[in-house]
Amino acid sequence: MLMTETQTHTLIDGRKISIDIKKEIAEKVALRKQADKKLPHLAIILVGDDGASQTYVDFKVKACKEVGFHYTMMRFADTISEDKLMKHIDQVNRDEDVDGFIVQLPLPEHISVEKITEKIRPDKDVDGFTNRNFGSIVSKNPLLLPATPFGVMELLKRYQIPTEGKNCVVVGASRLVGAPLSMMLVEEGRATVTICHKYTKDLATFTRQADILVVAVGKPGIITADMVKEGAVVIDVGTTRVEGAQYKNGYTLKGDVDFKEVAPKTSFITPVPGGVGPMTIASLLLNTLRAAELRNP
Ligand code: GUN
After folding, report:
1. What is the mean pLDDT of residues 207-220?
2. 182 is a domain residue
3. CA distance to 127, 171, 174, 216, per residue, from 201 (Å)
4. Catalytic residue among 104, 119, 254, 258
5. 162 and 69 within one domain
6. Residue 4 domain-assigned?
7. Are residues 178 and 226 in the same domain?
8. Would residue 60 show up in a list of annotated catalytic residues for this protein?
9. Residue 89: which domain range?
10. Would you say the C-alpha torsion 205, 263, 257, 184 has a positive or negative sign?
11. Residue 230 shares a structural domain with residue 267
12. Known catalytic residue at 54
């Protein structure tokens, strides 16, 4: 008789880990306060009135308050010109009181994300989006690591999931998640990494080889149980808003992994929501603290 093995899987609780990290940061902020040192200051630029962006920014402001950071919210209408936005970024770049800042994405279509991102001073780029910080992944002393990949690495570390010599498959080669995370898994994680993307033929052939499978494409349910090796670690970075009258608030967040079907096969898996999502904000706070410490030790 053919037996199908059912793993007992551990949920990777990003919400809990992010709370732990916030506590650690709050303690460091309290120490800076005691020593009469400048408190970390995060500025947030929000263009337009996209509902999802507003929600994310509200979470970031709330997180700043929780750890005792100063923050500044800067809002602009979605009609702002690229030139004008560049001038505002220049201003924040030169503002001695601001340690780190982010420009919430997406931006209106008439504004180039790359141009705006590259305008941010790398030592204030707490999202870790600039080319300088992307490249810094392969340096001995990275400046500010890309926030979401940093959060994934932190989850693996805090759950003591070994990466050295492991077969990691990253699905999604985006500039903000898949590409930097793959390099971090190689550099810091010493893993063997395969990057799959939309041109990959027969995706399942690759994903089935993964000891650690990371998915960051934004297509709900793209990873099904037959694509996952028994006992694999599965990290789901996908967070797609799916609308429906049956959901509170009119929408729900869905990951790229068919969680119900895949979870029983895994050893560890991140839920959506509550997995990688909260870690992006935790990393943003860690980066802001680091930027502040570098500027004012
Ligand atoms: N939009 C969605 N996620 C992010 C993020 O992590 N940073 C910024 N700046 N914009 C986003």
Report:
1. 98
2. yes
3. 32, 12, 18, 17
4. 104
5. no
6. no
7. yes
8. yes
9. 39-121
10. negative
11. yes
12. no
